[in-house]
Amino acid sequence: MKIAIIGAGYGGMAAAYDLKKAGHDVTIFESADYVGGLASGFKEPHWNWSVEKFYHHWFQSDSEMLELIRELGWEDKVRFPRPQTVMLYKNKWYPFDSIFKMALFPGLGWGINKIRFGFVGLFLRLTNNWRALEKVTADAWMMKWAGKTVYEQMWKPLLIGKFGPYYKDVNMAWMWARIKARTTRLGTFEGGFQKFADLFAEKLRESGVGIRFGVKVDSIKQEQAGLSVRSDGESESFDKVLVTTSPNLMARFCPDLPEKYLEGLLGLKSMGAVVMTLALKYPLSKDGYYWFNVPKDEGYPFLALVEHTNFVPKENFGGDHIVYAGDYLELGHEYFSMNDDELLERFIPAFQKFNPEFSREWVRKIWVSKTNYAQPVPLVNHSKNVPAIRTPIEGLFFASMSQVYPWDRGTNFAVEIGRRAARMMLKVL
Ligand SMILES: Cc1cc2nc3c(=O)[nH]c(=O)nc-3n(C[C@H](O)[C@H](O)[C@H](O)COP(=O)(O)OP(=O)(O)OC[C@H]3O[C@@H](n4cnc5c(N)ncnc54)[C@H](O)[C@@H]3O)c2cc1C
After folding, report:
1. Count: domains in the chain
2. Any idea which of 75-79, 184-188, 312-316 has the lowest mean pLDDT?
3. Residue of the CA atom closest to atom 12 of ligand 1
4. For the domain that residue 404 is a member of, what is the CATH number?
């Protein structure tokens, strides 16, 4: 079969790997001039490692990702350091990277709230019944079972940070998935995520997969036999096509999809993200913390501050201290139209709250990455709204972050859905 894959992110590349192994003729169309999609990174000439445009790490439970790495023979390149995550309470940072440490968080007080927190955490870890949980919002479920104090101290800031105006609408299965599928140890690839993506692309190319960079697909049309993929005014025919972009783009590529499927794609909600990466001359965190959870109601202009060089040593970045400041935002938020310097001006007073000595002179360079499609928003009974991977058009398949539900998006699940789509294209599933 002649197969086209739209997108050289983790999902598209994982699908290409299996389809090629099964003996097919595979071509990937990628609009960027690099692989890796949302998990891609960049590098300064004096760095040995790349940094991700949007901070990334793996969990020890990311079995699909780690299994793929094992298959490729690179497991010795995976590192799992133990960086520290902290949460703010009354202007002080407290450890927040395990259920045990979270239980000691002073915001919970002593007594009944700690017990409720523990029971809720344990229940969510043990249950597999996410279908019951998706029928109710996380807001309502947590208020009922964890109680007002636990919910408002621990979980509500997370929901508000991730989903902004939709925070009250997100279903409880999303929260379950987060607690179920995450570990305290965090992993990365030697050289950074981009290194992994580049090595993977090289392996694909060696096996005969064609990767066309800088090619922006603009439509996919059904033909008498097969599908034609159109980009930059040229069309090419394929037997099967897998699209791995956002649901919005999928709807735009394929207006011939039946109305119900199109409506399903366009009805999905998601948040965008804006992340600033800074190369600093000095460390920002005096305590060596990696991940700072910043509750939005504390007035910070971002949701998370991540000192990457407290995870990956600064020696890999020529001595630069790498810090990310990021937020999930609705499209149309002012950050999407602000330039890099304006955004830095906005963020500087907040950096000074982390370290009063911080000044603009500390900043060697900044980069700002923006995406419209960063975080799908799962509403109540979301399983009914997840678009099918096999679309109603013969030979056309779709595998995106919005379909990995009930799991939350991540490279692990991009690999899983990419490989599942490949099996469906091969009619093994
Ligand atoms: C802020 C943020 C933090 C994250 N943190 C983590 C984390 O810590 N750990 C983790 O595992 N995951 C994390 N993720 C999620 C992870 O990046 C994604 O789940 C994963 O990369 C999705 O892969 P994908 O292949 O499905 O899609 P994508 O990576 O989006 O790939 C789609 C590809 O399609 C290409 N494309 C788009 N339009 C066209 C077109 N018209 N023609 C051709 N090509 C096109 C794009 O350029 C892209 O390369 C994070 C994401 C964000 C935004």
Report:
1. 2
2. 184-188
3. 410
4. 3.50.50.60
